[in-house]
Amino acid sequence: MNKSIFLCAISNISSGSCAEDCGFCTQSARHHVDIERYKYKPVDQIVFEANNAANNGAIGFCLVTSGLGLDDKKLAFVCEAARAVKAELPDLNLIACNGIATVEQLKTLKDAGINSYNHNLESSKTFYTKICTTHSWESRYQTCMNVKEVGLSLCSGGIFGLGESKEERTAFIQSVKALSPDTMPLNFYIQNPALPLKAAPLSEKEALEIITEVRAALPHTRLMVAGGRETTFKSKECDIFAAGADAIVIGDYLTTKGELPASDREMIERLGYEIATTCHA
């Protein structure tokens, strides 16, 4: 087996200050979920986390901010963090995930050292109005087009298990396919009693079938299983790679705990896979 698994880590650099009403998101201030909230994480802490991620084998590191998109102050902060990380870890694939973004904002991020931009469609166009009313699916799609226009690597996917039908799920996958992203994150909805979205959890079998369906539709895209991996797949977690995944998020997520990176590395190596050392492989 010579399949390489790409490891990525995320840093929640601005947490819980979002005014949007996405029914699946713990960072929306409307839902009053009990999470840690802060405007800006200290840059030296972000660099510390980036070093930890690299030491754990991650070759991707994502700078995530809550909120609809970028204003001048937030853009300057992300750029400051990006430059600080790149100064210490020039080979790290640096990803920004900062919501709706214009071409000019994305050019500024690129100039600061950002390599990739993550903006998820989240669901199909028709289902989206059932999970968010404060901004449009089309604005998300346009941001992804902007990412491609400025020459950043595009990372775009979404969340499964929000209550969507199989037809809506397939339509969502086809919309992502039309964007031809370099990486597609596959998140699986994590139940939280404070969230308004009440959807039945996916079975392990159904979740694995989703990965297989996505792999068939996007044979050349990196498929990254991210949020909800541990709670959704449980005893079948090892099967995500055979189903088609070739990347995972290691460490903690935005507002939930993840596996210890050492445990994930041990799992990958035990299964006979290699851990990727470059994102261009």
From TrEMBL:
Pfam families reported in the protein's UniProt record: BATS, Radical_SAM
GO terms classed as biological process: biotin biosynthetic process
Catalytic activity line of the entry: (4R,5S)-dethiobiotin + (sulfur carrier)-SH + 2 reduced [2Fe-2S]-[ferredoxin] + 2 S-adenosyl-L-methionine = (sulfur carrier)-H + biotin + 2 5'-deoxyadenosine + 2 L-methionine + 2 oxidized [2Fe-2S]-[ferredoxin]
Record EC number: 2.8.1.6
Cofactors, names only: [2Fe-2S] cluster; [4Fe-4S] cluster
CDD domains given in the database record: Radical_SAM
Chain sites annotated for binding [2Fe-2S] cluster: 62, 155
Manner of cofactor binding, per the entry note: Binds 1 [2Fe-2S] cluster. The cluster is coordinated with 3 cysteines and 1 arginine. Binds 1 [4Fe-4S] cluster. The cluster is coordinated with 3 cysteines and an exchangeable S-adenosyl-L-methionine.
GO molecular function: 2 iron, 2 sulfur cluster binding; 4 iron, 4 sulfur cluster binding; biotin synthase activity; iron ion binding
Pathway(s) per entry: Cofactor biosynthesis; biotin biosynthesis; biotin from 7,8-diaminononanoate: step 2/2
UniProt keywords, alphabetically: 2Fe-2S, 4Fe-4S, Biotin biosynthesis, Iron, Iron-sulfur, Metal-binding, S-adenosyl-L-methionine, Transferase
Task of the protein: Catalyzes the conversion of dethiobiotin (DTB) to biotin by the insertion of a sulfur atom into dethiobiotin via a radical-based mechanism.
Family: Belongs to the radical SAM superfamily. Biotin synthase family.
HAMAP family for this protein: BioB
Protein name: Biotin synthase
Species whose genome carries this gene: Sulfurospirillum diekertiae
Lineage, highest ranks first: Bacteria, Pseudomonadati, Campylobacterota, Epsilonproteobacteria, Campylobacterales
Originating gene: bioB
